[in-house]
Specification:
Number of domains: 2
Distance between the termini: 49 Å
Largest sheet: 2 strands, antiparallel
Strand content: under 5%
Shape: elongated
Structural class: mainly alpha
Helix content: over 70%
Radius of gyration: 21 Å
Protein backbone atom coordinates (compact mmCIF):
# COMPACT_ATOMS: atom_id res chain seq x y z
CA UNK A 1 0.00 0.00 0.00
CA UNK A 2 1.28 3.46 -0.84
CA UNK A 3 1.45 5.70 2.18
CA UNK A 4 -0.38 8.63 0.67
CA UNK A 5 -2.57 10.71 2.95
CA UNK A 6 -4.37 13.55 1.21
CA UNK A 7 -7.27 15.57 2.53
CA UNK A 8 -9.49 17.40 0.04
CA UNK A 9 -11.46 20.12 1.78
CA UNK A 10 -11.37 18.13 5.02
CA UNK A 11 -12.42 14.87 3.36
CA UNK A 12 -10.04 11.98 4.06
CA UNK A 13 -10.26 9.94 0.86
CA UNK A 14 -8.03 7.15 2.11
CA UNK A 15 -10.11 6.67 5.26
CA UNK A 16 -13.29 6.72 3.17
CA UNK A 17 -11.90 4.07 0.82
CA UNK A 18 -10.99 1.87 3.79
CA UNK A 19 -14.40 2.21 5.44
CA UNK A 20 -16.33 1.69 2.20
CA UNK A 21 -14.07 -1.19 1.23
CA UNK A 22 -14.63 -2.82 4.61
CA UNK A 23 -18.40 -2.71 4.14
CA UNK A 24 -18.24 -3.95 0.55
CA UNK A 25 -15.88 -6.82 1.36
CA UNK A 26 -18.03 -7.91 4.31
CA UNK A 27 -21.15 -7.81 2.14
CA UNK A 28 -19.77 -9.46 -1.00
CA UNK A 29 -16.40 -10.99 -0.20
CA UNK A 30 -13.17 -9.91 -1.84
CA UNK A 31 -13.95 -11.51 -5.18
CA UNK A 32 -17.51 -10.19 -5.30
CA UNK A 33 -16.71 -6.65 -4.21
CA UNK A 34 -16.51 -4.18 -7.08
CA UNK A 35 -13.72 -1.64 -7.13
CA UNK A 36 -15.88 0.62 -9.30
CA UNK A 37 -18.70 0.46 -6.73
CA UNK A 38 -16.30 1.29 -3.90
CA UNK A 39 -14.95 4.27 -5.81
CA UNK A 40 -18.42 5.47 -6.78
CA UNK A 41 -19.63 5.36 -3.18
CA UNK A 42 -16.60 7.34 -2.04
CA UNK A 43 -16.99 9.78 -4.93
CA UNK A 44 -13.61 9.23 -6.59
CA UNK A 45 -12.49 7.77 -9.89
CA UNK A 46 -10.68 4.45 -10.13
CA UNK A 47 -7.68 6.46 -11.27
CA UNK A 48 -7.76 8.35 -7.99
CA UNK A 49 -8.04 5.03 -6.13
CA UNK A 50 -4.63 4.00 -7.48
CA UNK A 51 -3.08 7.02 -5.82
CA UNK A 52 -3.79 5.31 -2.51
CA UNK A 53 -3.73 1.57 -3.23
CA UNK A 54 -1.99 -0.31 -6.01
CA UNK A 55 -4.90 -2.70 -6.48
CA UNK A 56 -8.00 -4.03 -4.77
CA UNK A 57 -6.07 -6.61 -2.75
CA UNK A 58 -3.94 -3.86 -1.24
CA UNK A 59 -7.11 -2.24 0.08
CA UNK A 60 -8.16 -5.57 1.61
CA UNK A 61 -4.67 -6.04 3.08
CA UNK A 62 -4.78 -2.59 4.68
CA UNK A 63 -7.94 -3.65 6.51
CA UNK A 64 -6.60 -6.94 7.91
CA UNK A 65 -2.84 -6.59 8.27
CA UNK A 66 -2.94 -4.44 11.44
CA UNK A 67 -5.06 -7.14 13.08
CA UNK A 68 -2.71 -9.86 11.85
CA UNK A 69 0.27 -8.03 13.34
CA UNK A 70 -1.47 -7.93 16.71
CA UNK A 71 -2.64 -11.52 16.26
CA UNK A 72 0.99 -12.65 16.15
CA UNK A 73 1.15 -11.56 19.79
CA UNK A 74 -1.48 -14.22 20.45
CA UNK A 75 0.66 -16.96 18.94
CA UNK A 76 0.74 -20.61 19.88
CA UNK A 77 2.40 -20.02 23.26
CA UNK A 78 -0.21 -17.48 24.33
CA UNK A 79 -3.16 -19.53 23.11
CA UNK A 80 -1.69 -22.62 24.73
CA UNK A 81 -1.71 -20.96 28.13
CA UNK A 82 -5.02 -19.18 27.57
CA UNK A 83 -6.80 -22.39 26.61
CA UNK A 84 -5.22 -24.97 28.86
CA UNK A 85 -3.32 -23.53 31.81
CA UNK A 86 -6.04 -22.06 33.98
CA UNK A 87 -3.71 -21.35 36.89
CA UNK A 88 -1.54 -18.86 34.96
CA UNK A 89 -3.40 -18.34 31.70
CA UNK A 90 -6.68 -16.80 32.81
CA UNK A 91 -5.70 -13.23 32.05
CA UNK A 92 -4.34 -14.28 28.68
CA UNK A 93 -7.62 -15.91 27.76
CA UNK A 94 -9.41 -12.69 28.69
CA UNK A 95 -7.02 -10.80 26.42
CA UNK A 96 -7.75 -13.16 23.56
CA UNK A 97 -11.53 -12.81 23.72
CA UNK A 98 -11.39 -9.04 24.14
CA UNK A 99 -9.13 -8.87 21.09
CA UNK A 100 -11.53 -11.02 19.06
CA UNK A 101 -14.44 -8.73 19.94
CA UNK A 102 -12.53 -5.55 19.19
CA UNK A 103 -11.31 -6.89 15.85
CA UNK A 104 -14.39 -8.88 14.83
CA UNK A 105 -14.78 -7.25 11.40
CA UNK A 106 -11.16 -8.01 10.52
CA UNK A 107 -11.63 -11.63 11.58
CA UNK A 108 -14.82 -11.88 9.53
CA UNK A 109 -12.89 -10.57 6.55
CA UNK A 110 -10.13 -13.11 7.13
CA UNK A 111 -12.46 -16.04 7.84
CA UNK A 112 -15.23 -15.47 5.31
CA UNK A 113 -14.21 -12.91 2.70
CA UNK A 114 -10.56 -13.55 1.83
CA UNK A 115 -10.95 -16.01 -1.08
CA UNK A 116 -8.92 -14.67 -3.98
CA UNK A 117 -6.33 -13.00 -1.73
CA UNK A 118 -3.11 -14.20 -0.16
CA UNK A 119 -5.02 -14.41 3.14
CA UNK A 120 -7.32 -17.19 1.91
CA UNK A 121 -7.37 -20.20 4.23
CA UNK A 122 -6.41 -18.18 7.30
CA UNK A 123 -9.07 -19.80 9.49
CA UNK A 124 -7.98 -23.32 8.54
CA UNK A 125 -4.33 -22.46 9.16
CA UNK A 126 -5.21 -20.88 12.49
CA UNK A 127 -7.07 -23.97 13.66
CA UNK A 128 -4.59 -26.51 12.31
CA UNK A 129 -1.31 -24.73 12.95
CA UNK A 130 -2.05 -22.77 16.11
CA UNK A 131 -4.93 -24.19 18.11
CA UNK A 132 -4.40 -27.86 17.24
CA UNK A 133 -0.65 -27.75 17.82
CA UNK A 134 -1.04 -25.77 21.04
CA UNK A 135 -3.66 -28.11 22.50
CA UNK A 136 -1.78 -31.24 21.44
CA UNK A 137 1.53 -30.08 22.89
CA UNK A 138 0.08 -28.74 26.11
CA UNK A 139 -2.00 -31.83 26.85
CA UNK A 140 0.92 -34.15 26.18
CA UNK A 141 3.14 -32.10 28.47
CA UNK A 142 0.55 -32.27 31.22
CA UNK A 143 -0.05 -36.03 30.96
CA UNK A 144 3.53 -36.92 29.99
CA UNK A 145 2.43 -39.05 27.08
CA UNK A 146 0.78 -39.15 23.68
CA UNK A 147 -2.83 -37.93 23.49
CA UNK A 148 -5.34 -39.06 20.87
CA UNK A 149 -5.53 -36.30 18.20
CA UNK A 150 -9.27 -36.98 17.88
CA UNK A 151 -9.76 -35.82 21.46
CA UNK A 152 -7.66 -32.75 20.78
CA UNK A 153 -9.71 -31.98 17.67
CA UNK A 154 -12.93 -32.07 19.70
CA UNK A 155 -11.47 -29.75 22.36
CA UNK A 156 -10.31 -27.33 19.67
CA UNK A 157 -13.76 -27.32 18.05
CA UNK A 158 -15.30 -26.48 21.42
CA UNK A 159 -12.88 -23.59 21.92
CA UNK A 160 -13.36 -22.37 18.35
CA UNK A 161 -17.13 -22.40 18.87
CA UNK A 162 -16.63 -20.05 21.83
CA UNK A 163 -14.37 -17.76 19.81
CA UNK A 164 -16.80 -17.79 16.89
CA UNK A 165 -19.61 -16.76 19.22
CA UNK A 166 -17.65 -13.70 20.28
CA UNK A 167 -16.68 -12.84 16.70
CA UNK A 168 -20.13 -13.26 15.16
CA UNK A 169 -22.28 -12.45 18.19
CA UNK A 170 -23.19 -9.02 19.48
CA UNK A 171 -20.93 -8.97 22.53
CA UNK A 172 -18.94 -6.05 23.86
CA UNK A 173 -15.37 -6.75 24.90
CA UNK A 174 -16.34 -6.27 28.56
CA UNK A 175 -19.26 -8.68 28.24
CA UNK A 176 -17.06 -11.26 26.52
CA UNK A 177 -14.48 -10.98 29.29
CA UNK A 178 -17.15 -11.43 31.95
CA UNK A 179 -18.64 -14.48 30.22
CA UNK A 180 -15.20 -15.96 29.69
CA UNK A 181 -14.40 -15.55 33.38
CA UNK A 182 -17.51 -17.60 34.18
CA UNK A 183 -16.57 -20.25 31.61
CA UNK A 184 -13.13 -20.51 33.17
CA UNK A 185 -14.72 -21.29 36.52
CA UNK A 186 -16.46 -24.18 34.81
CA UNK A 187 -13.26 -25.28 33.08
CA UNK A 188 -11.24 -25.12 36.28
CA UNK A 189 -12.95 -28.32 37.37
CA UNK A 190 -13.36 -30.01 34.02
CA UNK A 191 -9.89 -29.72 32.58
CA UNK A 192 -7.93 -31.03 35.59
CA UNK A 193 -10.38 -33.94 35.76
CA UNK A 194 -9.68 -34.72 32.10
CA UNK A 195 -5.92 -34.64 32.66
CA UNK A 196 -6.32 -36.92 35.68
CA UNK A 197 -8.42 -39.39 33.70
CA UNK A 198 -5.88 -39.45 30.88
CA UNK A 199 -3.10 -40.15 33.36
CA UNK A 200 -5.08 -42.87 35.15
CA UNK A 201 -6.24 -44.60 31.96
CA UNK A 202 -3.00 -44.27 30.07
CA UNK A 203 -2.53 -42.31 26.86
CA UNK A 204 -2.68 -43.44 23.29
Amino acid sequence: MRTVAVNTKGFDIQAALLETGRREFLAHGFEGASLRVICRKVGVTTGAFYSYFERKENLFAALVEPTLERFRMFSSDLLQHAALDMESGGEKELEVVAFLCEQRDAFKLLFDCSAGTRFAGFKRRWVEQVLMDSYQNSLEQRVQGTVDPALVRLLVKMKLAQYNEFIYGDYSADQARDLTSKLMLYSDSGFPALVGALKDNGTE
